[in-house]
Automatic annotation (TrEMBL):
The gene is atpF. This is ATP synthase subunit b, chloroplastic. Its main location: membrane. GO terms for cellular component: chloroplast thylakoid membrane; proton-transporting ATP synthase complex. It comes from Chlamydomonas moewusii (Chlamydomonas eugametos). It is found in: Membrane; Plastid, Chloroplast thylakoid membrane.
Length: 173
């Protein structure tokens, strides 16, 4: 049963079941739509805000991740440059050290060569001196033998001619 307004200023009872169900149904749907619709709208608004907040946070995290990625790439490039500088510096130092070692080796070789030449010169002089002393000794021995064996007239003439020729060659200036 539904109460409805009558045309002459009062309310009455409608006894038509079909009309009454449709009216009841319309009233129930209206009440449900009014109360549930407002709650559903509020729930949908809250859900929309939550989704938007999640999207905004995800976007912010994506921006931060992109910034971190960019920073990491920059640091990687800097690390690569630093590694290349260190490698080049290492190569330069190794080359310099090799050059230093080669130079020192060449200096040592030059000193050894000089020492070798000095040693050879020393032993040549020593050998020459020994040969000279041997020859002089032999000459002196022969001269003594001659002097002790006696001089013959031919030998006197040879010695005298030698000294005469020496005096004639002598020219004081």
């Amino acid at each position: 049963m539904v109460l409805f307004p009558l045309g002459h200023g009062g309310f009455g009872i409608n006894t038509n079941i079909l009309e009454t169900n449709i009216i009841n149904l319309a009233v129930v749907v209206g009440v449900v739509v009014t109360f549930v619709g407002n709650n559903l709208t509020a729930i949908l608004e809250d859900r929309k805000k939550t989704i938007l907040n999640n999207l905004e946070e995800a976007t912010q995290r994506a921006v931060e991740a992109e910034q971190k990625l960019t920073l990491a790439r920059t640091q990687l490039e800097q690390a690569k440059k630093k590694a290349e500088e260190i490698r080049q510096e290492g190569v330069a130092r190794a080359t310099q050290e090799i050059n230093n070692v080669v130079t020192q080796h060449e200096i040592r070789l030059a000193k050894l060569q000089e020492f070798k030449q000095e040693t050879l010169g020393f032993y040549q002089q020593k050998a020459f001196k020994e040969a000279y002393l041997y020859v002089i000794s032999r000459i002196m021995t022969r001269v003594r033998e001659r002097l002790n064996s006696g001089l013959d007239s031919t030998y006197h003439v040879v010695v005298n001619n030698f000294y005469v020729s020496r005096f004639t060659e002598y020219n004081p200036k």
